[in-house]
Amino acid sequence: MLKLNPNITVIEEEGAFAVLDRALALKAKGAPVINLGIGQPDFSPPRHILEAAEKAVRDGPHGYTTPIGILPLREAVAAHIAGRFKVPVSADEVVIVPGGKVTFYFACLLFGGPGAEILYPDPGFPPYREAIRSGGAKGVPYPIREEKDFGFDADEVLSLITPQTRLIMINSPANPTGGVVDAKEIEKLAQGLAKHPNVAILSDEIYSHLVFAGAKFTSFLSFPELRDRTIILDGWSKTFAMTGWRLGFGIWPKALVDHVRKLITVDHSCVNVAAQMAGLAAMTGPMDEIEGFRKSFEKRRGIVVDGLNALKGVSCRMPGGAFYAFPNVKGTGRNSRDLARELLNEAHVALIPGESFGDNGAGYLRLSYAASEAELKEALARMKSFLG
């Protein structure tokens, strides 16, 4: 019998893709499924980005690039981030990767291994937990609480740090809750981490362009005293509606970039060069359409939260960012796994049960409002009819 690496065999499939498969199977049989499970903007990328990719496919370059990404793109990313957050960022800190997941996966490889502990949010993006497992570390969840507007308590997080802790993973605005962590808690966490010099920070800021009225985003780049151990995860997928392009970037401490370069050379060599050229056009081109995306999501947020709060047994807080709502469905009398399954099979509305995002997600559903207003209103009407 073949013997497999136990770090790999324990990995679980991401729930959103499992639900997507079931939704597609029902749709293939003719069911009018509305999929609010997958986190994917329903817009097309701006035209100037498509034209840059088309030109690159036609005219080149067509060869390998440096593993960490072409210099013009890394310079553009550095200038964009430095301008947004008013902090110094250099091109030699930027690493271009095929999708945001690669950044936290590499971080888990670098800081994992037997005996290591990595803190991650619960509920949180499921691949965090699986990347920690595959890197051989022990995952230690810290709670994300509804009463904190789906943020964390910095003192509670800091209390979980042990001599074995090597990395803490943070996500704001967050998947699956849409929560934006209060600036005071971010600052308190940063101050506490200053007392733990052996703990690195991975801040997933992929949704940082999607912050709405009532919330304020704080980047971990705001704390220069932690810069030598802070990794920023960001990319093009959510901001520019480029999920399928698989294009992301990390801003790494300079001392770690060479380790990441080596991982890239044995993993994927470099990122698709046409996608890099599209990313360059996105970073250096007009941003007005991107702001239009944000405003559209903000409007949909209001429709969804109002609609969810009108459902029997359901309550929903107003999310501060991203494009997710995380309604509390405990009042329906059903557990969230059963409710999600019934809504898909009977109402043909695909949602993700909260347990898919961790134990603290039990009793909740994740709804992505990255769908048209018409689809959202129809889905809410079906849910209302189903719940009675």
TrEMBL record:
<protein>
    <submittedName>
        <fullName>Pyridoxal phosphate-dependent aminotransferase</fullName>
    </submittedName>
</protein>
<keyword id="KW-0032">Aminotransferase</keyword>
<keyword id="KW-0808">Transferase</keyword>
